[in-house]
Structure formats: C-alpha cells, structure tokens
Amino acid sequence: MNYIVSFLFYLIRFFLKLFKRFFVCLRKIAIPIILILIFVSSIIFMFLFRIDPFFELWRTGNCPACELFQAELTFKNLKGANFEHSEIVDGDLRGANLENANLDGISLWGTNLSGANLKNSDFELAKIMLSNFSNTNLEGSLFKETSIDKTNFQNANLKNADLRGAYFLGGNNFQNANLEGTNLIITKLKYADLRGVNLSGANLQHTDLTGANLSGANLSGANLDNPILTDANFENTNLRGASFKGVNWKGVQLRGAIMPDGTIHP
Q1: What is the DSSP letter of 130?
Q2: Distance between CA 147 and CA 265 in Å, rounded?
Q3: More confidently predicted of 254 and 171
Q4: Which three-class secondary structure state does DSSP give residue 230?
C-alpha cells in the first residue's frame, strides 16, 4: 500500500513540474506569438479592405472602380468622394451629400438619389438607367456625353448644369425641374417629359427634341437655333424672347404658346 501511495505522489510531482516548465516556456514565447497574431490579423484586415468595397468606402470615403450592390448610403456625407468608373446597382443614396463628387464614368442602375445634394458633381460619360433623381440638387453638375434612360428628374435643380452631348434614350421625366441656364447643345431629348420645366436662358442649339413634351414649360430667352422639333409639344409654352433660327415648325403643337415676339399662338 505504501508503494502505491508513494508512486501516486511521484506522478503528481512529475506532472506538476511538467506543467510548470510548460508555462515557463509559454511565458517566454507569449510575446512573439502575440506579435505574430497581430501581424497576421493586420494582413487579413488589409486584404478585406482591398476586396470589399464597403470597407474601402468606410475607410477612405472613396470607392473608385467599385462594384456596389444594394448599398445603403442614405444621408451619408460623401462630399468630394471619388466614385470614378464605379457601378452602383439598386443603391439607396437618398439625401446623401455628394457635392463636388467625382462620378465620371459611373454606372447607376436602379439607384435612388432622391433629395441628394449633387451640386457641381461630375457625371461625364456616365451610364444611368432606371434611377431616381427627383428633388435632387444638381446645380452646376456635368453630364457631358452621359447616357440616361428611364430616369426620374422630377423637381430636380439642374440650374447651369452642363448636359452637352448627353443622350437621353427615352422615358425620362423632367416634370417641373429647373434647367435655367442649362447647356443642352447637341443633346438628345427624344420623347422626354419636360412639362412645366424651367428652361429660361438655356442653350438648346442643335438639340433633338423629337416627340418631347414641353407643354407649359418656360423657354423665355432660350437659344433653340437649329433644333429637331419633329412632333414636339409646345402647347401653352412660354417662348418669349427665345431664338429659333433654322427651325422647321412642321408637326409642332403650338396652341396657346407665347411666341418669341410676345403674341399667343391660336
């Protein structure tokens, strides 16, 4: 019996010494292990930043060449952000601040920008489809040679915006929008809904307004030299002081319109 007890005590002492040595060794290598774990974690973290656009957007406020699907960016401050050549599908940017943002070459599909601030933003060469710009501030923004299809600009402020060469493919709604002083030279606005739009002082030289509805619009002082007005509707439109050199009025509806000389068309 004494041998058995002695043997058990021996085993206990042996394992205690073994654990003691183990913890001593562990303590000596603990700092290197922690440093290695921090290093590996940093690499993984940076890798995630590189592959996940939301991490990049959160970290820098920019997201060039990003692909964002159903991005929730409502009321986010993205002033001056860079989204050059990015793609945003079904995004929600309502009320977001994108003043002076670089949106050059961006693709917007089904994106809601209602009420957003896009003052002086750059949309040059962008592709926009089925998106919502209603009640947005687009004053001074650049839409040069942009392709836009089935997009809502109701009540938007496009004062002094540059839409030279923009191509509106069809189904675009500009009802009651402000396009005062807007540059629309050589712009394609076929079948656009421009009812009640303020186009006073706008430049529409060589603009294609085939089938466009401008009833009740204000084009006072606008430049409409050499436009395409086939089947356009100018009923009850204010054309006082507007320039219409080289215009073919055939097929244009002018009932109740205030003509450039101030007379009202019967």
Answers
A1: S
A2: 35
A3: 254
A4: coil
Q: What is the mean pLDDT of the chain?
A: 86
92 in helix, strand or coil? strand
**Of 41, 42, 78, which is closest to residue 63 (Cα–Cα)?**
78
Distance, CA of 149 to CA of 89 (rounded, Å): 15
pLDDT at 51: 45
Give Cα separations from 123 to 81, 82, 99, 120, 230 (angstroms): 13, 11, 12, 9, 29
Residues 6+ apart with CB under 8 A from 170: 149, 150, 190, 191, 192
Q: Determine the pLDDT at residue 170.
A: 80
Nearest to 210 by CA among 178, 168, 182: 168
* Calpha distance 116→99 (Å, rounded): 9
Q: Which helix (H) or strand (E) holds 69?
A: strand 67-69
At a CB cut-off of 8 Å and minimum separation 6, what does 132 contact?
111, 112, 113, 114, 151, 152
Q: For residue 15, how far is the Cα from the chain centroid?
A: 67
* Sheet bearing 167-170, strands edge to edge: 67-69, 87-89, 107-109, 127-129, 147-149, 167-170
Q: What is the pTM of this model?
A: 0.77
Q: 19-32: per-residue pLDDT in tens?
A: 566 555 655 565 66
Q: Using CA atoms, how far apart are residues 150 and 193, in angstroms rounded to an integer? A: 11
Using a 10 angstrom Cβ sphere, with 0-12 exposed, 13-18 middle and 19 or more buried, the burial of residue 9 is exposed
Q: Provide the phi-psi class of 17: left if phi over 0, else alpha when psi is between -120 and 50, else beta.
A: alpha
pLDDT category of residue 12 using cuts at 50, 70 and 90:
low
Burial pattern 109-125, b for ≥16 Cβ within 10 A else e, equals eebbbbbbbbbbbbbbb
